From TrEMBL:
The keyword Secreted does not apply. Residues 8-339 form the Glycoside hydrolase family 29 N-terminal domain. It comes from Collinsella ihumii. The keyword Hydrolase applies. Alpha-L-fucosidase is responsible for hydrolyzing the alpha-1,6-linked fucose joined to the reducing-end N-acetylglucosamine of the carbohydrate moieties of glycoproteins. This is alpha-L-fucosidase.
Length: 438
């Protein structure tokens, strides 16, 4: 295994923006948006490549407006965005020299990664690229299905199987080199995904990460090369030297109590969540989650020290579906009033107040300021707060600064602040009270 040096100081520096910004947009887009049955359709329908290639020949998302994508993310209060540069089908949204199976070789003809990066940077949103280490298009990688391990029965080194798979790894590493070299400074690299015994050095992970860290010294990466700790979606413990991955990526789950390394130190983590039940565009999937539920998920992630990256799957024209845009706008209206309880915030633990996790909602904290998010009607905040009354100096509605009269006996202004972030109107959620402590 190649040597590598984990630099804690450098790690803390590069993670600063990520741990502050908390909320990102995931974008799954590719030729699979034409059949519109999700990004796994080659596997789920066992579709041979000759039936898939016509989508490549047809691909022309004529209405794709990356700036409109970026503005939708900005309106929602998302501070970073990650686009699939290549998903498991092997189709590249960037102008790679390694293959003709790329967007610049379709009727659309454009380098979508370049357009995405330009548009989101122009809107002041940090940018990341998702890259699939699985590739059903490359001849040296099994056609589809993640259970077809390329190195079945762990052949001996130097065997033909190893040589063939090494050829694929050379290709994969070269593509990562291209995206780390040709598109300016990247803020985030999102690898996807390891499985069975295909993890760590089976991808030549240290060699890959040494190259990434040399070309993009400040980029942060997820843990899905799976060198440190098993399982990206599992709640397994991870080792405390995250050289091969800076944050853990529970998929579609929020860890009950956040995530910690084997020494008990809190880990950076990000829950990745779809708005409906699919990552890639799926025209019949109308099961979109209501915005308040997704706001709850965002608040819950931050209250447990994590981030939320929320997915959109643009359709074959390149448009983000109307249902997704409506959800993003409703989240944005909440964020406009309450983002102080998200950006720069984390768990209540570790602050000046000992306060239990309430069953009525979630608490986030930024330094000495606590934000109580009441999911249920506040029948009189005091009993809800679980905080000694003499520790509260004043209460305000976070959404509009309205004073909430509680008691005129509070005079201590040097106590920590508490603020409730109201979850806004919704058919399900009554307007809770929020408060500020000065
Ligand atoms: O197989 C992929 C899937 O298509 C999607 O990209 C998700 C996003 O986290 N990752 C893998 C499944 O875990």
């Amino acid at each position: 295994m190649l040597a590598y040096q984990f630099d804690r100081e450098r790690y803390n520096r590069r993670m600063k923006w990520y741990l502050h910004d908390r909320f990102g947009m995931f974008i799954h887009f590719g030729i699979y948006s034409i059949p519109a049955r999700g990004e796994w359709l080659r596997s789920t329908e066992e579709m041979p490549e000759e039936l898939y290639l016509p989508y490549f020949e047809e691909f022309n998302p004529y209405a794709l407006d990356a700036r409109a994508w970026a503005r939708a993310a900005k309106r929602a209060g998302m501070r970073y965005a990650v686009l699939t540069s290549k998903h498991h089908d092997g189709f590249c949204l960037f102008d790679t020299k390694t293959t003709d199976f790329k967007s610049t070789n379709t009727p659309y003809g454009r380098d979508i990664v370049a357009d995405f990066l330009d548009a989101f940077r122009a809107e002041g949103i940090r940018v990341g690229l998702y890259y699939s280490v699985i590739d059903w298009h490359h001849p040296d990688f099994p056609q589809y299905g993640d259970r077809q391990a390329p190195l079945r029965n762990d052949p001996v080194a130097g065997s033909n199987e190893h040589r063939v798979f090494d050829r694929y790894l050379d290709y994969m590493h070269e593509q990562v080199r291209e995206i780390c070299t040709n598109y300016g400074k990247l803020d985030l690299l999102w690898f996807d995904f390891s499985y069975d015994d295909m993890r760590g050095e089976k991808w030549r992970a240290t060699e890959l990460m040494n190259m990434v860290r040399e070309l993009q010294p400040d980029v942060i990466t997820n843990n899905r090369l799976e060198v440190s700790g098993e399982g990206f979606g599992s709640l397994a413990q991870c080792d405390p030297t995250p050289y091969h991955g800076d944050f853990v990526t529970p998929e579609r789950i929020i860890p009950p109590n956040g995530l910690f390394d084997v020494e008990g130190n809190p880990l950076a983590w990000e829950a990745c969540i779809t708005m409906n039940d699919n990552w890639g565009y799926f025209s019949h999937d109308t099961n979109f989650k209501p915005a308040p539920m997704l706001i709850h998920k965002l608040v819950e992630c931050v209250s447990k020290g994590g981030n939320l990256i929320l997915n959109v799957g643009p359709d074959a024209t390149g448009r983000i579906p109307d249902q997704s845009l409506a959800i993003l706008d409703e989240i944005g209206r909440w964020m406009e009033r309450n983002s102080a309880s998200i950006y720069g915030c984390g768990p209540a633990a570790g602050g000046p107040l000992e306060v239990e996790r309430p069953e009525y909602g979630r608490i986030t904290r930024n330094g000495d300021t606590y934000y109580f998010h009441l999911y249920e009607n506040a029948l009189g905040p005091m009993p809800l707060l679980g905080v000694p009354k003499e520790r509260i100096a004043s209460m305000r509605l976070l959404r509009d600064g309205t004073e909430v009269q509680l008691s005129n006996s509070w005079t201590h202004s040097d106590y920590p602040n508490i603020a409730f972030a109201d979850l806004g109107p919704s058919p399900v959620l009554p307007d809770p009270v929020d408060t500020v402590l000065a």
